[in-house]
Amino acid sequence: MTIKEVCSKFGISPDTLRYYERVGVIPEVHRTPGGIRDYTEEDIGWVETAACFRSAGMPIDLLAAYVRLYKEGDSTIPERCELLREARARILAERQKCDDALAKMDAKIKVYEKAVQTGKLVWDDDQGCCSCGRTKKE
Amino acid sequence: MTIKEVCSKFGISPDTLRYYERVGVIPEVHRTPGGIRDYTEEDIGWVETAACFRSAGMPIDLLAAYVRLYKEGDSTIPERCELLREARARILAERQKCDDALAKMDAKIKVYEKAVQTGKLVWDDDQGCCSCGRTKKE
DNA sequence: ATACAATCTGGAGTTAGCTCCAAGTCAAGA
DNA sequence: TCTTGACTTGGAGCTAACTCCAGATTGTAT
Fold first, then answer.
1. What is the CATH number of the domain that holds A7?
2. Is residue A60 part of a domain?
3. Residue B135 needs a FRET pair 20 to 30 A away by CA distance; which of A90, B18, B46, B50 works?
């Protein structure tokens, strides 16, 4: 598979894909005799994983660390397992932040939806006041 | 409340707080006669909201746009409402990416936990192969 | 064989979001 | 009053993650 095809498959630019390879977020990609990248199923698997984790906010160097360990062989399995667990905790924390923001957002939107009708914002005691997020109770 | 107190309350650096004010992520903060920032309850509410949304990945300029509209008064309520809805969609998408990554991650960790026992990675057909994320079925 | 598009490399440039710094001002304790 | 430490500003510097570019090479259609 050409770089262009992989790009459109995952919505990544060619430059980004080459960058990922250069910094070790994915291992070296298979090449044609002429030196053009020709992604195998396995290469694509790495790209898919990298794209998925990156879009969840996993930093480049963490992904690269995993690939480095992978290349060292089976002796690094426990280390990789630990790394994955840490990565999981990170993403879980990310999601929690999203949930917190969504809760705040939903409360705000509720008030705004009423305000769009009346022309004036009315914050009840539980939700906060003004356009800021302050809760009156604290 | 001094800038230091606000910082420790939200785990933000003073530089970041001043930066937020400068770029309009929060409105101008109340000052002492000497010119020192003295955060009111309302200022703190803005900081809280900004911190919450920022940590969920909301870009600076979107938050600043909201504050700009807020300062223009009640006539911008519908616009602000729309902006909030877009912001909500963004964060929802963020969370979806986290969920996708978590699913992939959990599958990987499962395989690795077995591997830590046996010393060898064994990927079953449903999960993918190697250390990449490729699913054998596609 | 030739044109033309796609890809290659190494390196420079860009963007967002802070983070640091110097030089000056303000405020509380001895 | 003096010292010490927190706070101020404007502006420069930094990091992560791309993104762009020039000039060379490869692959493909006529």
1. 1.10.1660.10
2. yes
3. A90
Specify if B124 maps to a domain. Answer: no
Partner-chain residue, chosen from B41, B52, B70, that has the shortest CB–CB distance to A101? B52
Q: How far is B39 from chain A (nearest CA, A)?
A: 13
Number of domains in chain B: 1
Inform me whether the C-beta atom of residue A44 falls under 8 Å from chain B C-beta atoms.
yes
Query: A57 to each of A19, B56, B95, how far by Cα in Å?
Result: 17, 11, 11
CB B49 within 8 A of CB A63: no
Chain C nucleotides close to protein (CB under 7 A) are 6-9, 11, 16-21, 25-27
pLDDT tens digits for chain A (138 residues)? 999 999 999 999 999 999 999 999 999 999 999 999 999 999 999 999 999 999 999 999 999 999 999 999 999 999 999 999 999 999 999 999 999 999 999 999 999 999 988 878 888 666 666 677 776 555
B105 near B115, Cβ under 8 Å? no
For B53, the domain range is 3-103
The separation, in Å, between residue B18 CA and nucleotide D4 C1' comes to 24
Could you say which DSSP state residue B125 is in? Answer: T
Mind listing the pLDDT tens digit for each residue in B52-82? 999 999 999 999 999 999 999 999 999 999 9
Query: Any chain B CB within 8 A of the CB of A79?
Result: no
Tell me, in Å, how far CA of B41 is from C1' of C29?
Answer: 29
| B13 CA to C24 C1' distance (Å) | 21
Asked if residues B49 and B87 have their Cβ atoms less than 8 Å apart, the reply is no
The rounded distance, in Å, linking the Cα atoms of B71 and B42 is 14
B53 touches chain A (CB under 8 A): yes
> Given CB atoms, is B36 within the 8 Å cutoff of chain A?
no
